[in-house]
Write a structure and sequence with these properties.
Number of strands: 2
Oligomer: single chain
Structural class: mainly alpha
CATH architecture: Up-down Bundle
Largest sheet: 2 strands, antiparallel
Number of domains: 1
Strand order of the largest sheet: 1-2
Helix content: over 70%
Order of helices and strands: HHHHHEEHH
Length: 183
């Protein structure tokens, strides 16, 4: 087991702990945010170690993206259960992740690697930052106007960057789908 893979497994082990603190109420909001932030940082760390120390493995290629998706899904479930995020927004964000993963699988079956694009990196950064903000705020809603809160802005910013980067991935990589959609 490589160091990078161990770090990935530690991230997966952090997810249940994150879920417990994320659902324990406002008094644990900061703790859940810190756990999410640390878990998110381990994603960059394991990727760096895997590439820099030649520890890229098939296990890591499978489990690392899975760990990322589980961490994000866990945060979205907390937001939905706390009434901070509408179910439809969480569904679109998760759907985007599945769609991009599917596109990458089709590309891989054709020997094509789809690297993370700039908009995908921006999406990851914005969603991570907004997730931490939403976790820190917890259930304490900060109202800007009668129809808008800080939480609303964070949620819809996550949605917008996710949809934008997803559309860009499909437009940029439309050649991958040629011949894959049937006649």
């Amino acid at each position: 087991m490589t160091t990078a893979n161990i770090i990935t497994l530690v991230r997966i082990a952090m997810i249940p702990v994150f879920l417990v603190f994320g659902t324990m109420g406002q008094e644990y909001a900061l703790v859940s945010a810190i756990i999410f932030a640390v878990a998110s940082l381990t994603d960059s760390l394991d990727g760096y170690i895997a590439r820099h120390y030649n520890q890229v493995t098939d296990f890591g290629k499978l489990v690392d993206p899975l760990a990322d998706k589980l961490l994000v899904l866990s945060a979205l479930l907390i937001f939905v259960s706390n009434g901070i995020m509408p179910v439809w927004v969480a569904t679109v964000i998760v759907g985007r992740e599945f769609a991009i993963s599917g596109l990458r699988m089709i590309a891989a079956s054709k020997g094509i690697v789809i690297a993370a694009g700039k908009s995908g990196k921006v999406k990851t950064f914005v969603q991570c930052l907004m997730t931490i903000l939403l976790l820190v705020l917890g259930t304490k809603i900060i109202v800007i106007t009668s129809w808008l809160s800080v939480q609303d802005i964070a949620v819809y910013l996550m949605l917008i960057v996710g949809v934008y980067s997803g559309v860009e991935y499909f437009i940029t990589n439309r050649n991958v789908l040629k011949g894959s959609m049937g006649k």
